[in-house]
Every structure is written in structure tokens, then in C-alpha cells.
């Protein structure tokens, strides 16, 4: 039996900025540069306003994820899995880069969904997102459902929507069962996911935060690493191994 500490990661958009996908709240974030952009992630705006949907389909994060590679930090997490030390990877990201780096899908809890598929808001139609991206790139600004003509969207969780109960249950259990929780590239601002960090600490885990900017939980953490994730996280994980 392994005596090494079990680690659960809580990752956010900052782990993927190195892959070219902008975060929301960092200095170059989509919302930092354009406060209106938040509407594209809000259900009522998305359903009500075709202009918002057109912007949602054009967002850099929505189109960039099709062409990017996982970062050294994603790969460092995936490599650690071989040592049996990972109890979960809770991610707020919708880009699928943990799995692309080689992390086992059953360990990755995508609490805000993912952009791999589209679905219709009104009928049961659904399919791979790549086919919708092809339609958008071919000039359809707000592609309608091929079955009923209704509004289609990515299988992400928008503001005003409930999280998937099974996914949040698995994420909660990964937070409660680890020895170390490492929050990486997240402002720890979005609830209820941010509360999984103090929950892990309540259940006895040590808390580590790797982020360029302060978070609301820095003072509760045992260690705060302020450097660039792409250097700092692989170095930190290497240190844990030796
Ligand atoms: P956030 O934008 O609120 O915070 C990201 C944090 O990462 C910031 O504090 C920023 O300073 C830090 N950061 C960025 N690049 C860094 C680097 N190279 N080194 C160190 N720190 C760095 O992100 P969040 O907390 O994940 O919340 C945003 C929400 O938006 C999430 O719900 C997520 O679903 C979604 N989102 C996802 C993606 C994606 O899938 N890649 C991209 C943008 C937004």
C-alpha cells in the first residue's frame, strides 16, 4: 500500500492560458477586457439574445480549444497518476486538456461540463461539437438545431444553471478524501466549486494554491505559490516525488 499522500487537484482557466486559451478574470482575461462578455456564459442572455449567441460561438475560448495542445502543467499532473497519488482532478475548465494530456477520464470531474458536444435546448438532438464548429467556420453565426431549428448550445454549465449532481458528488468526495488539495490557476471565485477548497481543509487536507494573483483562500492555505503555473507546478510536483 502506498504511504505517499493522496492529492486532489482543483484546476481553473489559469492552467490552460499557457495553451493559448484566455482565462476570464486574469489580466488578459475575456471578462477583464470586456465586461459584456459575461453575458455569453449566462443562460437567460444566451436564450434571449441572438447577438449574444453569435458572440458565444465566436469567443476565443470556444474556437481555440479545437486547435490546442495540453500544457506542461497538464502533463505533469497526468504523469503523477502513475505513482497512484491522485485521488481526483476537479476542473472548472471545459477544454478537455486534462484528458488530452493523459489523465484518466474517471479521475477528471468536469464540474462546468465540456465543449466536446452540442445539444439542443428544445429537443433531444445532440452531437459532437466539431460538426458545429465546422458550421460556424463556414459562416453560420448562430447555427440552429438540425432537427427542430431550435437554439443549440455547448454541453457546458452556464450561469443560472444547476451543476450535474453526480459530478459534484464525485468532486466533493475527491475533496473530502485527499491529503493535499492543490488549487491551480483558479481565482477561487466561482461557487459552489470554490468552496471545495476549504471543505478539503476541513476534512484534514493540507491546502496549496498555485496562482499568479491572490485568491480569497490564500490565508487559509498552507502554501501559496505565486509563480507561473507552467514552471511552478511541474517543479512543485517533482519536489513531492523526491
Ligand atoms: P479565472 O479566470 O477566474 O481565474 C484564473 C486565474 O488564473 C487568475 O487568478 C489568473 O491570475 C491565474 N492565471 C492565469 N494564467 C496563469 C499562469 N500562467 N500562471 C499563474 N496563474 C495564472 O478562472 P476560474 O477560476 O477557472 O473561473 C473561470 C470560469 O470560466 C470557470 O468556471 C471555467 O469554467 C471557465 N473558463 C474555462 C476556460 C477553459 O476551459 N480553459 C477558459 C476560460 C474560462
Descriptive account of the structure:
- This is protein acetyllysine N-acetyltransferase.
- Its EC number is 2.3.1.286.
- Keywords: Metal-binding, NAD, Transferase, Zinc.
- The structure is a single chain.
- With 242 residues, the protein is α/β, with parallel strands linked by helices.
- It is built from ten helices and nine strands.
- It has helices spanning 30-33, 43-48, 50-58, 60-64, 72-80, 97-101, 129-137, 165-176, 196-202, 229-241; strands at residues 7-11, 86-91, 108-110, 113-120, 126-128, 152-156, 180-184, 206-210, 223-225.
- The chain has a six-stranded parallel beta sheet, with helices on both faces. The chain has a three-stranded antiparallel beta sheet with strand order 5-4-6.
- The relative contact order is 0.18.
- Nicotinamide-adenine-dinucleotide binds at residues 12-14, 16-18, 21, 23-26, 29, 61, 92-95, 112, 185-187, 189-190, 211-213, 228-230.
